[in-house]
Amino acid sequence: MDRTLAADLARLPDLLEATRRTAADALAALDARPVVPRPPASPPHRPEPLPRHGSGTESALTAFADRWAPRLSASAGPRYLGFVTGGATPAALAGDWLTSVHDQNSNSALDGAGQDLERETVTWLRDLFGLSGAHTGTFVSGATMSNTTGLAIAREWLGERLGVSPSEDGAAALGPVRVLSGAPHSSIAKALSVLGLGRRSLVPVPTLPGREAVDPAALDRALAGTPGPAVVVANAGTVNTVDFDDLRAIAALRERHAFWLHTDAAFGAFAALSPDHAHLTAGLDASDSVCVDLHKWLNVPYDSAVQFTRRQDLQARVFQNAAAYLGPLGEHPDLVHLTPENSHRLRALAAWFTLRAYGREGHREIVERDIASARALGSSLEAAPVFRLLAPVRLNVVCFTLAEDPTPARLAALCEAAREEVFVTPTVYAGTPALRAAFSNWRTTQADVRRAAQALRTAAKGTA
Ligand SMILES: *Cc1c(COP(=O)(O)O)cnc(C)c1O
């Protein structure tokens, strides 16, 4: 064994303790440090050369603390409101550490109970979102991968209807495909590109006036004009204004038209936890496939999402990984046959930990506190003459812009000026350049909302 490696092995408990201290210090500093630090003024960073002889874990810890940690964002903290970004609850963090400690490849029954733990966690998540036992689920790395997996199953369903098998014969066997959606997330187009259906298969359907929710009557007409079976992507929580399609109205269209219903509920599914907002997800169970992200509002570390479907048989047709040593699929296929990945870490463990530690009530409280934070920031910005809200705060996102002259350059300057105190990200909504503040971190309090509002007002004055 390499001498440094052997020395590290001999002191492993000490090194874990040093790592624990580094972690605790980083977490304790989250509130005070810049949310997104400014890059150093010194010359641009050049990669350090690969060391010929290493100097061990302790020196790597020091080098990381000196050179990299201060330049990372505080995205684990309470005022990082860009994109839709969750943190990691204490239990989720513990679960994530132990995932690496056990270093499982939880993809088959040949080895340990990893995939049984994953299946138990999936049943908890199904319960959390009000899905019935007709849905099975698998863990994937994020909502993009969940959407891709759901649409891959949709592709196989189209083949079943048309008497061909895209998984055996290729997507071309289907001929032209139409994927109808009101305001789909950008990852849907990416998934269609990956799946050989093509970005152009995505057909936009009009939304309701002044909304991002699809117009069910327009969807009805679009389906009537579609030759052959189609795919509908319903949106349960758009990223700009967190608008929800009427999932029950869409599902009811199946009485007249044949289509696969995929619902992208990446973070909107968590509305099901709040009694005041659960109606937004009514009808979710009728979907043929559902995407939910976990590294957003469940507050587990990156990278984690779940993919639900009512047609695991089609899922296994797409993703089966035939190999002499893996055995037949059977009634409960091993996870290796269900997602694009073969090997994967015991990704479910962080979700298992946080659900086991805090339960439905603990996670309901996080969701409701974040919604209240979004509403409070919305009211505060609405009361400031420099700002204008572009949509009502429907759930956990505030979509706003400058009341006067909201050019992309001015908005970028505002973000830049505020970013050490609060981080928000740019967007364009209904043709207007805008900003989004998204609340999905378990740490955020009303005091953070006041700091964020103050920082945004100050930054806006600076750009006038
Ligand atoms: C975040 C998000 C995605 C993509 O999620 P990743 O985890 O970044 O892959 C897809 N759809 C919606 C609605 C999202 O909010």
Describe this structure in words.
The termini are far apart. The chain has 2 domains: 1-7 and 24-39 and 55-99 and 358-464, Aspartate Aminotransferase, domain 1 (Alpha-Beta Complex), CATH 3.90.1150.170; 104-344, Aspartate Aminotransferase, domain 2 (3-Layer(aba) Sandwich). The chain has a 7-stranded mixed β-sheet, with helices on both faces. A 4-stranded antiparallel β-sheet has the order 8-9-11-10. The protein is built from 14 helices and 11 strands. The model has no long low-confidence stretch (mean pLDDT 96). It has helices at residues 3-10, 12-28, 56-67, 90-102, 114-128, 143-162, 166-169, 186-194, 216-224, 247-252, 312-319, 348-383, 408-418, 446-462; strands spanning 136-140, 179-181, 202-204, 230-235, 259-264, 289-293, 305-309, 387-389, 397-402, 425-429, 432-438. The protein is 40% helix and 12% strand. It is α/β, with parallel strands linked by helices. Helix 6 (143-162) crosses helix 8 (186-194). The longest helix has 36 residues, at 348-383. Bound molecules: pyridoxal-5'-phosphate. Pyridoxal-5'-phosphate binds next to helix 6. Pyridoxal-5'-phosphate is lined by residues 84, 142-144, 185, 187, 237, 239, 264, 266-267, 293, 305.
